[in-house]
Write a structure and sequence with these properties.
Elements: H1 5-23, E1 41-52, E2 55-67, E3 73-75, E4 79-84, E5 90-96, E6 98-102, E7 107-118, E8 123-133, E9 138-149, E10 152-162, E11 168-178
Antiparallel strand pairs: 1-2, 2-3, 2-4, 3-6, 4-5, 5-7, 6-7, 7-8, 8-9, 9-10, 10-11
Length: about 180
């Protein structure tokens, strides 16, 4: 059973085509193989409840939530947090244009037009950045702050308060305006 030269030629032609097709592939753009660092999940109309002993203590709401592989979250369209007192009544709200949660430190950060409102005391806080530490139940900032109370307005830089905005201290007071009304 001898091989004919036509069979050998056919076999060489097929092998040549295979080798040629493998050597003519396009080079892959290495940047397309880079690690993806963007959001792994996107949620809309988010409502998250934090409870203690089966009682809702906080309610976080956002139109959009981006969740990342490391557990961090971003709320690019704003964030609203409601705090409830022991009897379940709404006591304080925090609202910000943008929100962030860092899992490693368990901190929330609001940016943009950040507003805090203690409903019972009719106290309002405005700042461009505010942190909430749910573990320590504290809110704080190093930025400029304006606090409006029924009888005065206080301006300063840096502030720390309990998460219900009942008791607060300024790092530096820059002005106090008494309300004459």
């Amino acid at each position: 059973m001898g091989l004919r030269s036509a069979d050998i030629l056919s076999a060489l032609l097929v092998m040549g085509c295979c080798i040629f097709s493998l050597s003519c592939r396009e080079d892959v753009d290495k940047s397309q193989l880079a690690f993806y660092d963007g959001p792994t999940r996107v949620g809309f109309d988010i409502v998250l409840h934090h409870s203690d002993s089966a009682i809702v203590r906080t309610k976080l709401m956002a139109d959009k939530q981006l969740e990342f592989r490391n557990g961090n979250n971003e709320f690019p369209e704003g964030i609203l947090i409601h705090f409830f007192d022991k009897d379940g009544s709404l006591s304080t709200t925090i609202q910000a244009d943008r929100g962030y949660y860092e899992k490693r430190t368990n901190l929330y950060r609001g940016e943009g037009d950040v507003r805090v409102h203690n409903i019972a005391k009719d106290q309002k806080l405005n700042s461009e950045e505010l942190f909430w530490d749910p573990g320590k139940k504290r809110i704080y900032t190093e930025k400029f702050v304006t606090v409006e109370e029924p009888d005065r307005i206080i301006r300063g830089t840096g502030m720390e308060a309990d998460e219900g905005f009942n008791e607060y201290t300024f790092t530096e007071v820059t002005g106090v305006i008494d309300n004459a009304l």
